[in-house]
Amino acid sequence: MTRPAIRLFLALAAVFAPTAVRAQAVEAISVWGRRANDLGRATSASEGKISYADFAVRPLLRPGELIEAVPGLAATQHSGAGKANQYFLRGFNLDHGTDLAASLDGVPLNLPSHGHGQGYLDLNLLTPEFVHDIGFKKGPYAAENGDFATAGAVAFETADHLHGDGAQAWIGENQYYRAVGSKALTGDVLVAADISTARGAWTTPEDLKKINLLGRALVGGWSITALAYDARWNATDQIPRRAVEAGTLGRLDAVDPTDGGETSRFILSARRRDLMRGVDAVVYAQRYRLDLWSNFTYFLDDPVNGDQFEQVDQRWVYGGSVSKRWTPTGGWTLRTGASARVDDIGKVGLYRTTARLRRATVRQDALTEWSAALWGEASRRLGKLDATLGLRADAMGAKVSAGDPRNSGDVADLLVSPKLALAWRASRTFELYADAGRGFHSNDARGAVISVDPVTGEPAARAPLLSPSDGAELGLRWKRESLTLTAAAWALHVDSELVYVGDAGFTEASGATRRAGLELLADWRPTARLNLTAAYAATHARFAGDPPGGDRIPNAVSSVLSAGASWRLGQASTLSLTWRRLGAAPLIEDNSVRSRPTSLINALLAQDLGRASLMIEILNLTNGKKDDIAYFYASRLQGERSEGVDDVHFHPVEPRTVRAGLKINF
Question: How many CA atoms lie within 13 A of 162 on its CB side?
Answer without folding.
Answer: 27
